[in-house]
Amino acid sequence: MNTESEQSLTGSTIVAPGAQEFFLSGGPVGVLVIHGYGGSIGDYRKFGEALRQRGYTVLGMRLTGHGQSLAALRATTSVDWQASVMAAARRLRETCRDIIVIGSSFGGALALNYARQAPDHLRAVVVVNPAVRYRAGGKVQTLALKLLRLFTKDYRKPGISTAETARYRQLGSMTHWPIDGIFETYRYIQRMVLPHLGKILTPTLVMAIDDDPIVHSDSARIIHDLIGAAKKKLVWLPGKTHRPFRDDHLVDVMVQEIETFLDSLPSVNSQG
To answer: pLDDT per residue over 65-76, tens digit each?
Structure first.
């Protein structure tokens, strides 16, 4: 599977090399990995390689508008991102009979919405630092963003050093979030995810870092408590980061937790 530059609403733009989707051929069970809003699938390459070593086929997808420019990202909405997930799942299904969907941050919201449709081929859904409540998502912060939008279209991600800025550029990850896009993720979570968690019957693994600086840890608890799946598990990961996929140790921990969870499912083993 090859990703080429795409034609966006703002004109022709090139996808950064580090943001290209990747396909790692393995066994009959496929894993679809969904990155977060304004992020890059390049951050998940080591995670994908670790899963392939366990025998899975892995598709690390790129959400529409990502890995290009802020202008391209501003031109997309949740309708586009959700369509990206559906299209990627169809492509993975061409190779694998069953799939596992893994979403990080806002990608977790997209993964949960996909799981709500309860497709027969979906073996499990895994969400990591899932976004239901943001640290800066209260009424005061929302008002501040609305005021800021009068002067600029974008909001700089907090805590990005000069060295990290270069990494972001290489991976095609945004150093800023479009403010309208932030509100779009709020609306999607409130309308498409939270009211429907009880309808999700697919086995669900929730992994989160309690001291996540971006997403409030209540998000993981809310999802775990409200989701309708009979088989569900909440795992707290060590550290203080919103992006555990960049940490080799945390990658190992997450992969092991996924394997353990899959092995615990009735009449299902990780590669059966």
So the answer is: 999 989 999 999
Checking if the pLDDT of 155 tops 70, the result is yes
pLDDT of residue 12: 36
CB atoms near residue 99 (< 10 Å): 25
- CA proximity to 128, closest of 35, 201, 199: 35
232: helix, strand or coil:
strand
Q: In terms of Cα–Cα distance, which of 82, 78, 86 is closest to 119? A: 86
Q: What ranges do the domains of the chain cover?
A: 21-263
pLDDT band at 141 (very low <50, low <70, confident <90, very high): low
DSSP output for 115-142 = HHT--TTEEEEEEES--SSBTT-SHHHH
* Domain boundaries 21-263, CATH class: alpha beta
Q: What is the mean pLDDT of the chain?
A: 87
CB 40 within 8 A of CB 172: yes
Any residues with CB less than 8 A from the CB of 3 and at least 6 apart, and which?
Answer: 15, 20, 21, 62
